[in-house]
Amino acid sequence: MRIPHLTLTALAAAAAVATMVPGTTAHASVDGSGSAGSVAHAVHFVLPKGAAATGTATPSSNLVYNGGPVENAGSTNYAIFWEPTLTASVNSVSPQYNSLITRFLSDIGGTPLYGVTSQYYQVSGGATQYIANSSSFGGSYLDTSIYPGPALTDAEIQAEVTKVMAIKGWTGGVGHEFFVFTAKGEISCAGVECSNAVFCAYHSSFASSGQEVLYANQPYTGTTPVGCTTPSSPNGDLDADSTINVVSHELAETVTDPSVGNSNYAWLDATGQEIGDKCNFTFGSTDGAGADLYANGHPYIVQQEWSNRANACSMS
């Protein structure tokens, strides 16, 4: 299936004006140097609330299997916190930022929300293999080295992943995802689309040493557009709660559509939207603490995910 790509003009207009239908995103092509290119691996954006990719499908149109792999055996997730000490006065994070994010990655597996992904599957060797409601936290790494520049390229995000994988002895492959978290004030760009204007985060994949590496670029939500924040903060840390929401979006999308980098797509709708895009910043009912999900007794505010079974956004 051919995926519609937004032009830079359309992306900029969506981010600046935010008048289109909320809850969608788009694929864009980026070459190995981080410049916009036609021969490239693709990245898949999370756009701010209120910004959207153009498309013709209705919000109720279901996801369709396109033949690519899914993380059917479950996901193991790793957090890379890139927070330079030399520029800590500029590139800071909130007090609970790292600990709340790692807690979420430890908590999410086995929850009803993660279970929404279990209705999706891959076909391998003629067998239909459904996604298991299983996710674990593989570990974290704090990198205090200086950023190469004020705006990181996609190639530099990839290089950070491979560097830390080597340091920690982590392996790639479908079923392992690496989340790169940068600090406040640091911008990152996929080609000419940048986190201070266009996107909240993106996920993709690339090849390294003969293995596929799944990764997500997670800019600090206190630096990204205002549409990237959550409406409440059940943990008393708006930046951390907002980033966790975007992490949840990217995690569900990687589980159901991991091989974005080589365009080997799995579950998409007719306009190229993934499971999280169709419910972008659409939350469940919240309690007095502002939480719509409790996992291992911990409160979170995270968006719903698309359920083909319900033909709607769902928390379970």
From TrEMBL:
It comes from the Bacteria. It holds the Pfam family Phi_1. It is found in: Secreted. Keywords: Secreted, Signal. It comes from Candidatus Amunia macphersoniae. Its main location: secreted. Residues 1-28 form the signal peptide. The keyword Secreted applies. This is Uncharacterized protein.
